[in-house]
Amino acid sequence: MDTIKIKNGNFEADKIPEFIRQNKYGDITRLLDGLGRLNNKFDSTPLLFLLKHENEKIRCLAVKNLAKIGNSNLTKTFINIVENDSSSIVRREAVSAIGRLRDHSNKQILFKYLDDSDPEVALQSVRGLLVFKEDEDVQEKLKQLENHPNETIQEIIKKEFRTNFTNGYDPNHTKSPDFMKNVVINGDVREILKLVSDESVHLTFTSPPYYNARDYSIYSSYKEYLDFLEDVFKEVHRITKEGRFFILNTSPIIIPRVGRQYSSKRYPIPYDIHPLIVKMGWEFIDDIVWEKPEASAKNRNAGFLQHRKPLGYKPNPCTECVMVYRKKTDKLIDWNIRQYDQKVVEESKITGDFESSNVWKIDPTFDKIHSAVFPLELCNRVIRFYSFKGDLVFDPFAGSGTLGKSAMNLDRFFFLTEKEKKYISRIKENLTQTRIFSDEKFKPNFLSTDKFKEASK
After folding, report:
1. Are the C-beta atoms of residues 421 and 186 closer than 8 Å to each other?
2. What is the pLDDT of residue 223?
3. Closest among 217, 218, 263, 209 to 398, alpha carbons compared
4. Is the predicted pLDDT of residue 240 greater than 60, yes or no?
5. Could you give the C-alpha distances from 119 to 81, 122, 443, in angstroms and in order?
6. Segments of 169-264 assigned E as strands
7. What is the band of 316 on the pLDDT scale with cuts at 50, 70, 90?
8. Tens of pLDDT along 188-237?
9. Domains annotated on the chain, with CATH
10. Distance of CA 234 to CAs 30, 240, 252, 287, Å?
11. Mean pLDDT across the chain
């Protein structure tokens, strides 16, 4: 008697119909999910029966297992599912099943589904046709999808038909210019970055100046503020290595009211800057919430505590957004990792416990000079998670220089820019206390924009 291998042992094939009739959909789902390889001698009758089941997950698993049989006679069955099933996940699985048959005679069928209104169905058609990528008619059809409305399909087509694509070793990926290593520059970051060549840094982590909320960041309008950040982050994109990360720490801010007859104004900086960042070529990867103790936040609900009237509730802001972006590339993260020597990879691994959620509970830091500084622990986590030893990390708004301090502690190089002279003195104090520099090569170098221009030549 034929048996079928499943995750927890073997199952007698002729008992499947009876099992289906007598068991609830949860048990059926577990059975279908656990089926291993099937061949063209397998009796498909029970699976065909399940194609009419009311539960879409069961129908989807039935199609998935029918595809394992590899029988081209099932093509009409799969077409019927695509044409008539109401479930998107079942339809896309049926198109995938047609593609998995790898039958040249099915190319016209897959061509038809490239125009399906469900982008997931179209995507499965693309995947099925890529098996015949060398066929001229397939190439012609797929290249027409370069401007498809769905961005995933666009990216697949561009990657598959790029003539200059290489996924090999890049000898420059792990390197960075020596004149930028452990350098602090006093000047306008927009002018400084004009002196930096493309793909020079491995990681940028920064918290931009608050919009008109501190005495060191006054702008004539919110638009001017966003335009300024956009200009800076475009340059950050240019100088970032392929596929490497940009981490941005921001939060909504409140501009106090100018009188009791006016209301205060709250600006959603993370949400307004995000679309600009994505548009310039960064890919959004993660949102991390930095949670601070409520006691450290400015109290906004004192009035509500007294009157308790609806519409007057204002929560205390004790979180900030740590938004993670990656420079867009066709290459996977594994490619970036493979550029490094195995020794560097091993030495850079995260040891011990680590925060597995996207909520990081870290106490804020207060500084006698700078009113808004990075906690060292926040910098440590970002540097450890998003760079390797020997990498160059950048902060365009260095403040008190905490990122540089963290970089040195973790055997990375830093590149910092800061406009305010009074903070440069604080950075000197912060960095020179970090370690004793026996090698002048690694000692922090403080430069003006003009001196940096000379060094860059």
Report:
1. yes
2. 93
3. 209
4. yes
5. 17, 5, 54
6. 183-186, 201-206, 240-250, 253-255
7. confident
8. 999 999 999 999 999 999 999 887 665 556 788 899 999 999 999 999 99
9. 3-160 (1.25.10.10), 178-299+313-456 (3.40.50.150)
10. 49, 10, 22, 20
11. 88
Q: Is 387 buried (19+), middle (13-18) or exposed (0-12) by CB count in 10 A?
A: buried
* Range list of β-strands (E), 328-398: 359-361, 392-395
Question: What pLDDT is attached to residue 24?
Answer: 66
Torsion, Cα of 283, 287, 292, 293 (10° steps): 170
d(Cα 252, Cα 110) in Å, to the nearest integer? 48
Return all residues near 446 (Cβ < 8 A) that are at least 6 apart: 183, 184, 185, 186, 424, 427, 428
Query: What residues contact residue 352 under an 8 Å CB cut-off, 6+ apart?
Result: none
320-333 burial code (b ≥16 CB/10 A, e <16): bbbbbbbbebbbee
> Is the predicted pLDDT of residue 451 greater than 60, yes or no?
yes
Under 8 Å between Cβ of 448 and 186: yes
Give 33-43 pLDDT, tens digit per residue: 888 888 877 78
| 126 CB-near residues (< 8 Å, 6+ apart) | 114, 142, 145, 153, 156, 157
Arithmetic mean of pLDDT, 338-343 = 96
Q: How far is Cα 26 from Cα 45, in angstroms, rounded to an integer?
A: 20
- Token pair 């801010």 is found at 253
The predicted model scores a pTM of 0.82
What residue type is 341 in one-letter code? Answer: D
In b/e form, how buried is each residue of 194-227, taking b as 16+ CB within 10 angstroms?
Answer: ebbeebbbbbbbbbbbbbbbeebbeeeeeeebbe
Residue 342 has pLDDT above 80, yes or no: yes
Vertex 258: Cα angle to 256 and 259 (nearest 5): 115
* Residue in 122, 99, 120 with CA at minimum distance from that of residue 112: 122
Question: What interhelical angle do 119-129 and 88-100 show, nearest 10?
Answer: 10
Separation of alpha carbons 148 and 66, rounded Å: 30
The pair of structure tokens assigned to 193 is: 């970055």
Smallest CA-to-CA distance from 217 within 448, 426, 399 is with 399
Q: How far is 446 from 425, CA to CA, in rounded Å? A: 10
| Residue 8 banded pLDDT, cuts 50, 70, 90 | very low
Specify which residues 12 forms β-bridges with: 3
Mind listing the pLDDT tens digit for each residue in 101-152?
999 999 999 999 999 999 999 999 999 999 999 999 999 999 999 899 998 9
